[in-house]
Design goal:
It is a single chain. With 302 residues, this protein is an all-beta fold. The protein has a single domain (2-6, 19-296), classed as Neuraminidase (6 Propeller), CATH 2.120.10.30. The chain has no helices and 28 strands. The protein has a five-stranded antiparallel β-sheet with strand order 1-17-16-15-14, with no helix packed on it. β20 (204-210) and β21 (213-217) form a beta hairpin. It starts with a strand and ends in a 6-residue tail after the last strand. The relative contact order is 0.14.
């Protein structure tokens, strides 16, 4: 189903000066990189936060995410050149940063004062707010360098669907077999989309939508959930799966081969985004929730 938004009302643009608070500290406060398997992991903690997640990454190494302050309020942040910048949508009571493309445009979602969830784009100081037509909540998850956006929306019956927004047109995304819970997680510059959906048996599967065709993605041996979150133009996919013990792990899928990604000693790891250099961001749980950056280790020649 497609919707065309009238040009004058397509997006409510808030041309406001962004009140950004530059934090003078940098990532040197985080532990030194930990080498494990194919990656070196570096913890990302927003200064003074009691919870941090890293949720977006571009090819320049810019990272966006969310942190929770001492009052329990969530804010968005940008980590660039080891400096943190915090941002909030004007009038919001909660802001989350989910994606950043190579043009520096940031995307995410927020709660307004009525606790309704909307999505936003932040383009060099200007916020653009948008909603899927008729939705009770709109949840941006990813975007590409062409300005295409994907995510999820809740309809009037409370069902969750994926969506694509491209040139002002909205398209609903529901893979065959989905039963009211689909989220589109990321779109690459070739238009390939990854996400996840719930089937009638209560199993969460991943999907790849490419050239109009759906393919199912299931990590071998996953208990009841495989959730892809990110994809590159080269087709590398990252995400999360759970095992039979209830432990959640990150994963990569490269050229048909799955590999597990776990922050050392953590009992929960999720791999959210990957860039063209193979760097991954996500979060892990170990004495609290933290963000991380995983950088591929150089291949040792024999």
């Amino acid at each position: 189903m497609k919707y065309k938004i009238p040009a004058a009302l397509a997006l409510v643009v808030l041309s406001v000066a962004l009140a950004l608070a530059q934090t003078p500290t940098n990532t040197s406060s985080a532990p030194a990189g930990v080498v494990s398997g194919s990656f070196t992991f570096t913890t990302i903690d927003f200064p003074g936060a009691n919870r941090t997640r890293a949720l977006g990454l571009n090819d320049h190494g810019d990272i966006v995410g969310e942190y929770r302050d001492s009052s329990g309020v969530f804010h968005g942040y940008l980590l660039r050149y080891e400096n943190f910048t915090t941002f909030d949508v004007p009038g919001s009571i909660q802001t989350r940063g989910l994606a950043i493309n190579n043009r520096g445009v940031i995307g995410g979602h927020f709660l307004d004062s009525n606790k309704v969830r909307h999505s936003y784009l932040l383009n060099h100081g200007d916020f653009t707010i948008f909603d899927f037509p008729g939705a009770t909540a709109t949840i941006l998850q990813g975007m590409n360098d062409l300005g295409q956006v994907v995510g999820g929306y809740v309809d009037s019956a409370g069902n969750l669907h994926g969506f694509l927004m491209s040139s002002g047109n909205f398209t609903t995304i529901d893979p065959p077999g989905a039963v009211g819970s689909t989220v589109a997680g990321e779109i690459d510059d070739r238009g390939q989309i990854v996400g996840n959906y719930l089937d009638a048996s209560g199993i969460t599967h991943g999907f790849l939508l490419s050239a109009g065709s759906f393919s199912t993605i299931d990590f071998p041996g996953a208990f009841d959930a495989t959730e892809p979150f990110g994809i590159t133009a080269d087709g590398e996919i990252v995400g999360r799966y759970d095992d039979s013990n209830g432990t959640e792990h990150g994963f990569t899928l490269i050229a048909g081969k799955f590999s597990t990604v776990d922050f050392p000693s953590a009992f929960f790891t999720e791999a959210i985004r990957v860039n063209e250099t193979g760097q991954i961001v996500g979060s892990y749980n170990l004495a609290g929730q933290h963000g991380y950056l995983a950088t591929p280790n150089p291949i040792q020649k024999p």
